[in-house]
UniProtKB/TrEMBL annotation:
Alphabetized Gene3D superfamilies for the sequence: Metal-dependent hydrolases (3.20.20.140)
GO BP annotation list: adenosine catabolic process; hypoxanthine salvage; inosine biosynthetic process; nucleotide metabolic process
Ranges of residues in domain Adenosine deaminase: 20-367
Alphabetically ordered keywords of this record: Hydrolase, Metal-binding, Nucleotide metabolism, Zinc
Protein family per UniProt: Belongs to the metallo-dependent hydrolases superfamily. Adenosine and AMP deaminases family.
InterPro entries reported for this sequence: A_deaminase_dom (IPR001365), Ado/ade_deaminase (IPR006330), Metal_Hydrolase (IPR032466)
Record EC number: 3.5.4.4
Cofactor(s), by name: Zn(2+)
Stated name of the protein: adenosine deaminase
One Gene Ontology MF term: adenosine deaminase activity
Length: 371
């Protein structure tokens, strides 16, 4: 089913697209409109595998269905290549916000790696400013269209490079100018968060919030390092925390589970999991349990009381939206509006915002679902 067909999808009679949503795990270079890529590629001299937006969208979806995170990440070479000028970054950030607003998102966080956008001669500060300009333009456009949305930046350091401390300094420097958090991303297996301990120490000293990609392409050791070395207050994906759960018995809907130390810590401390169902299938993150959405441990984690949130990860690569992800979960696990609301309340509580603003988000979500 094409994405736009999910726009009218309903749960208990209500349009899912019309429900207020919070998006926490959404990559800027994974959400570039295919038509925009085609336009920008011509000016940038970038060769494309397809010459129109629809065909390029198909190409991304096909190329990302490899079941391998390293292969999945190769598709970003194309999007990053057209994101090397301030004009391109501003446009893409503006369209990013407009697309979120169209999907019913009232608060979003966009993560991206400034170090990957310097080929055109911009400085790290200039690329952050270009993205922030686009975000503000998008917020203004959404307001003019009758939709209130706020978007914060999460600055990402690539885990296989040595610039994490520099990006940490950049994030703290822009904490009052649109940047709300820090992340590390890229090839996870073999690149533990402990490699970036100096950056995480600096962020902790400055009381700056951190989310870490962990538990996607690597397992419990990566999650443990994210918690201990990274002091992560959220886990990017984190789906492989389920490896620390031993299902002892099943009797109908009753499941008896033995918790490992890491899983119990994450559950009991309500450390949010930024789960991305479609992406987790594409990258093979859930291969230990199966290859279909019904095999995803999302429902097990939810029923056990983990703080699960629903995210898109990369809208272009997964050809998805937050509405689509919620509809797929509702169809697969027979969720109702109360469940969908719980996921949004978890995300609102996990947002990198002051507590007063998180409480306002929670009220807006409750009011939206009640209507």
């Amino acid at each position: 089913m094409p994405i736009d067909q999910y726009g009218d999808a309903r749960v208990q009679g209500l349009s899912v697209r019309g429900l207020p949503k919070v998006s926490l795990h959404d990559h800027l270079d994974g959400a570039v409109r295919p038509d925009t890529i085609v336009e920008l590629a011509e000016d940038a001299g970038v060769e494309l595998p397809e010459d129109n937006g629809d065909a390029l969208s198909d190409w991304f979806a096909d190329a990302c269905d490899s079941g391998s995170l390293p292969e999945y990440l190769k598709t970003f070479d194309l999007t990053v290549a057209v994101m090397q000028t301030p004009e391109a970054l501003t446009r893409i950030a503006r369209e990013f916000v407009e697309d979120l607003a169209d999907d019913g998102v009232i608060y979003g966080e966009v993560r991206w790696a400034p170090e990957q956008h310097l080929a055109g001669g911009m400085s790290l500060e200039e690329v952050v400013e270009a993205v922030q300009e686009g975000i503000e333009e998008g917020e203004d456009a959404a307001e003019d269209a009758g939709h209130d949305i706020r978007v914060g930046q999460i600055l990402t350091a690539m885990r296989h490079t040595d610039r994490s401390l520099e990006i940490a300094h950049l994030a703290v420097a822009f904490r009052d100018s649109g940047v709300v958090g820090f992340d590390i991303a890229g090839a996870e297996d073999g690149y533990l968060p402990s490699r970036h301990r100096e950056a995480f120490d600096y962020l902790a000293e400055n009381f700056f919030p951190v989310t870490v990609h962990a538990g996607e392409a690597a397992g419990l050791e990566s999650i443990r390092s994210a918690l201990i070395d990274g002091r992560a207050v959220r886990l990017g994906h984190g789906v492989r925390i389920a490896e620390d759960l031993d299902v002892v018995s099943r009797a109908g809907e009753e499941v008896t589970v033995q918790f490992g130390d890491v899983a119990r810590w994450v559950r009991d401390r309500e450390i949010p999991l930024e789960l991305s169902p479609s992406s987790n299938l594409q990258t093979g993150a859930i291969s230990a349990w199966g290859t279909q959405l019904e095999d995803h441990p999302f429902d097990l984690l939810y029923q056990l009381g983990f703080s699960v949130t629903v995210n898109v990860d990369n809208r272009t690569m997964s050809r998805t939206s937050l509405t689509r992800e919620l509809v797929l979960l509702a169809q697969t696990f027979d969720y109702d509006l109360d469940d969908l609301q719980a996921f949004q309340l978890n995300a609102a509580a996990a947002a990198f915002l002051p507590v007063e603003e998180r409480e306002e988000l929670i009220e807006l979500i409750a009011e939206g679902f009640e209507r």
